[in-house]
Batch of 2 targets.
Target 1
Amino acid sequence: MTLGEDLWIFGYGSLMWRPGFDFVERQGAIVRGYHRSLCVYSHVHRGTSERPGLVLGLDKGGSCKGVAFRVAAGRAETTLAYLRAREQVTSVYREISLPARLADKRMVHVVCYVADRAHAQYAGRLARDELARLVEQGVGQSGANSEYVKKTQAHLAELAIRDEILDWLSKELG
């Protein structure tokens, strides 16, 4: 990001339905080289270190459909500070910039938060029964882990984005 330019943020989980920052434009987007995955043990927002929950991260490989938010240049610094406090509370996410194709076909660079595979909270790929167990037990500062999964799945469905694991898990959670 260059000083004086608008900032684009990519949301693939709760940022889609609870961004928490002001934006001037919102539209569907896709990034390549990473996919949405329940691959991060949550010790703060949707669980604790004693009873972790499980939240989404961008993990290597594939592609991910989500939402891009354009933030006015004058709000860029404040927005990044907010996102860093929210997303990097335990440093399990790395902040990177990736090219994204917007729904209107423009290419922009987006700030996004990818899972750090070397971090102790990186869960990797888990069996479905373990996904369900962790999500059912997780409750943190931002509420129940099951609520996070259901809201994210519902928002993806509204955007006509299918996520096989979140679809299955939402049904399992009732």
Target 2
Amino acid sequence: MEERRHHPRWQVNIPVKIKLQGAEAFSCGHLLDITLKGMRIAVDFTLPTDSLVTLCIGLSDDCFITIEGKAVWCRNVDILNIYGIIFKRISDYDKDKIFALVKEMHPKQIYNGECNGIICQKGGAQMEDLRIFERMPAQLAVRFIDLKENKEGDAQTLDISAKGMGLVTEQPLGPKTPLELWLKIPDRGEPLYMRGDVVWSKATEESKYRVGVNLEKADLMGLARVMRIA
């Protein structure tokens, strides 16, 4: 079920902290897009769809907004629940924070006009972001197995998201190469295990290779571990 919306959504694609009213602690989530009337979020917990909820959302370490809204649809993707939420109540002060976030993130991707008083992203609701989850810079050691050639290798991450990562390796890995990966996170925990496929690979001037990997499953819990040490 698609929600009917009259305002185009701004693609933001950022990891956020989310706390449902009454909860003791924040949970990790992902804010996919937002407008002053609603948003689309990905979380690994369940929200009620038959009643209003109050959410506190950390857009950054020092920027929080509080909204009262209702989830009008939900779609499951692997271990995640993606919700479309309509705002029923939000303060003007928090609207200003949303506008400031979008203006800072996409200054060159905004129309030179307004739609119903709202600056809208070029392409509006029709614009699709191929990268559902934003990558964040991270330099972490990775051990991997090339399942096609049955060979082990070492790499280092350049960036990472819940659904993909960029790597630097000393050996070529062709597109569609299936990989098993163990990400070494310096938090005294076990290496983070993942599976994925190489999407692209190109040689660098340093006789190494940059590789883009698409992960089989979106892992918000794993991303939360990375965020804590990044």
